[in-house]
Amino acid sequence: MNKGLVITLIFLVPLLFPVVTMAEGEIYKVVDADGNVTFTDQRPSAGATPLDLPPLSVIQTDTPDPGDPGATADATAAVDENAEPTPQDLRRQFQDFRISRPLPEETFWGTENSVVVTWETAQPIPSTLKVMLYVDGQAQQAPGGGSVSLTLDRGEHQVYAELRDQRNRRVAATETVTFFIKQNSANFSRPAGRPNSGSP
Question: Is the C-alpha dihedral spanning 21, 25, 29, 32 positive or negative?
């Protein structure tokens, strides 16, 4: 190897150290005569040593680029899908909740006092909601199948239902339906009496 080249490299290597130091971003602490502290990336003196700083922590986030409207819309949609619906959202969703059977003022004959009450809504009722059925003012939790069979005394009855959320807040309520249960009288089933044989 050329001796002159070796000598040139020997002189150039020390000159490269400040460049490496600058790339690493070394920080120096300087305290003046009045006790004021200053931090700088410039070496204050030849014998100054840089501070030993811990490595920076970098946290990767999924925050969308503000300049990308598509990414922002996707992120908003994902949040909306995972968000629990508010009571106002549920009231709008189930505003058509109603008793479908019995019909208003319907009369049941000869059913052995048994009546099937059904309710419905256009949207499927999720498992997070429960149906409370009120029959003649008495509350009972109804099964999730959309109907229940009741055995009631003869006479007039009222029924309505409520949808309640997990906090037992009322989400929706049906109109009250009045219906009647009647049984045929035994007198109506008796055969007609024969004429009296002793009559002229």
Answer: positive
Q: What is the pLDDT of residue 50?
A: 81
31 is in which domain, residue-wise? 3-40
Spatial CA neighbour of 97 closest among 140, 128, 127, 132: 132
Ordered alpha helix ranges (H), 25-135: 69-82, 87-93
Q: Chain centroid to CA 8: how far?
A: 72
- Half-sphere exposure (CA, 13 Å, Cβ side) for 134? 14
pLDDT at 10: 53
Contact 105, 120 (CB under 8 A): no
Q: Are residues 33 and 97 in the same domain?
A: no
Same-domain status, 103 and 30: no
What is this structure's pTM? 0.51
Beta strands in the chain (DSSP E): 28-31, 37-40, 98-101, 106-109, 114-120, 130-135, 138-142, 147-151, 155-164, 170-173, 177-182
Q: Are residues 92 and 35 in the same domain?
A: no
The torsion angle over the Cα atoms of residues 105, 110, 116 and 117, rounded to 10 degrees, is 10
